[in-house]
């Protein structure tokens, strides 16, 4: 350990502070102080390690090694004590560790969770802390959250959820040198009896389909979900049947917004405003009976011109009209899958910067980190006290209020 020139350090620190230079880094005024502290701590650890038992067995000091440490204070070189038996395992700076975890690793993981690429993170760390970190080291650091991701994916769930929205988003992933598009299945739910939303699970598939959704729902069941009161879904064929094969008492509401979008694809552009104005009388009706009357009027006018569109509304009416049996606050929650689409938009803000991901785990790491941030911002569902009372009355044997 080198002797520290405190007077010289003070002068150098003042000059660097005025010029805005790093006080720690390799040439920083305070680098010798930090280096000296770490080396003294390692010496103390070695002294504690070489107890009487170690010395009797023939173990003793065996010179020193050197390594470069990277931290939020910059990069600096230290000398590390060694023992003859190589049994010394320091706690402050572990063997083969080159980054001080408490100071820099969390910053790197935080930047990764914001969607920054490894190159951008490396440039940011270099600019802020005068420290060079390779792509390999950055990967090793972010890989440390993989156990957390796996635990989160398999964590136990509540027995009953009141409302669940199910939808998928699509992500580009590299496989065998080729870029493929995969469906990333997310289950967003609010809403337990406390009115809080959360993400239940994240799953991968080559494409979106009812068969894979059946696997997803089975996994939820295996993780403790016994009942779902209402499921809001898109119009994927066989989706409702897949849900009810696992949760037979679940009320299924197909997304009205999806249905409208699909309908307008087949309506001539010059007639879309008129058609949509009359269609609104159907899905905005006060009662299911009134909506049925308006749907019949719509069919009378447009059946001959757009038979496929009208047939779609008629054939799917039982799943599209589920929400009419509820009051306005509940209708607003379930008539569309917009809540999960809003979540997807937030996730895409961080995934869009990546292009194609190296593998599925690279996607899961980023989705996990972004989801944890998103969930922190979610508050209790608006009007939940009123909503849960209404649900408890309708599903009296399935929801128990804590009074």
Automatic annotation (TrEMBL):
The keyword Plastid does not apply. Keywords: DNA recombination, DNA-binding, Transposable element, Transposition. GO terms for molecular function: DNA binding; transposase activity. InterPro entries: Transposase_mutator (IPR001207). The keyword DNA-binding applies. It comes from the Bacteria. One of its GO terms (biological process) is DNA transposition. Residues 52-71 are annotated as: Disordered. It holds the Pfam family Transposase_mut. Belongs to the transposase mutator family. Required for the transposition of the insertion element. This is Mutator family transposase. It comes from Saccharicrinis carchari.
């Amino acid at each position: 350990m080198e002797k520290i020139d405190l007077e010289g350090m003070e002068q150098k620190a003042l000059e660097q502070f005025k010029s805005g230079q790093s006080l720690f880094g390799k040439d920083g005024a305070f680098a010798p102080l930090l280096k000296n502290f770490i080396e003294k701590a390692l010496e103390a650890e070695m002294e504690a390690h070489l107890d009487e038992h170690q010395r009797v067995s023939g173990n003793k000091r065996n010179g020193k090694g050197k390594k470069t440490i990277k931290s939020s204070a910059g990069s600096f070189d230290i000398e590390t004590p060694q023992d003859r038996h190589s049994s010394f395992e320091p706690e402050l700076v572990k063997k083969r560790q080159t980054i001080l975890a408490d100071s820099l690793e969390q910053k790197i993981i935080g930047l990764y969770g914001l969607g920054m690429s490894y190159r951008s993170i490396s440039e940011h760390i270099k600019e802020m802390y005068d420290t060079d970190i390779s792509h390999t080291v950055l990967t090793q650091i972010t890989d440390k959250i993989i156990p957390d991701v796996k635990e989160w994916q398999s964590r136990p769930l509540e027995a009953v959820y009141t409302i669940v929205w199910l939808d998928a988003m699509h992500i580009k992933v590299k496989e065998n040198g080729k870029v493929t598009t995969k469906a990333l299945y997310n289950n967003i739910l609010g809403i337990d009896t406390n009115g809080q939303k959360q993400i239940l699970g994240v799953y991968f598939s080559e494409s979106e389909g009812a068969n894979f959704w059946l696997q997803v729902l089975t996994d939820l069941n295996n993780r403790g979900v016994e009942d779902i009161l209402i499921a809001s879904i898109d119009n994927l064929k066989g989706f409702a049947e897949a849900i009810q094969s696992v949760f037979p008492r679940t009320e299924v509401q197909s997304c009205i917004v999806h249905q409208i979008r699909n309908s307008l694809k087949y309506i001539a552009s010059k007639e879309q405003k008129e058609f949509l104005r009359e269609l609104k009388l159907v899905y905005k009706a006060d009662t299911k009976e009134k909506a049925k009357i308006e749907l019949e009027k719509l069919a009378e006018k447009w059946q001959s011109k757009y038979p496929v569109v009208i047939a779609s509304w008629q054939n799917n009416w039982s799943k599209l009209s589920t929400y009419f049996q509820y009051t306005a606050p509940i209708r607003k929650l379930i008539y569309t899958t917009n809540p999960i689409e809003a979540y997807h938009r937030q996730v895409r803000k961080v995934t869009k910067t990546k292009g194609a991901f190296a593998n599925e785990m690279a996607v899961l790491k980023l989705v996990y980190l972004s989801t944890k941030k998103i969930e922190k911002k979610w508050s209790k569902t608006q009007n939940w006290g009123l909503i849960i009372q209404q649900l408890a009355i309708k599903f009296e044997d399935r929801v128990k209020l804590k009074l």
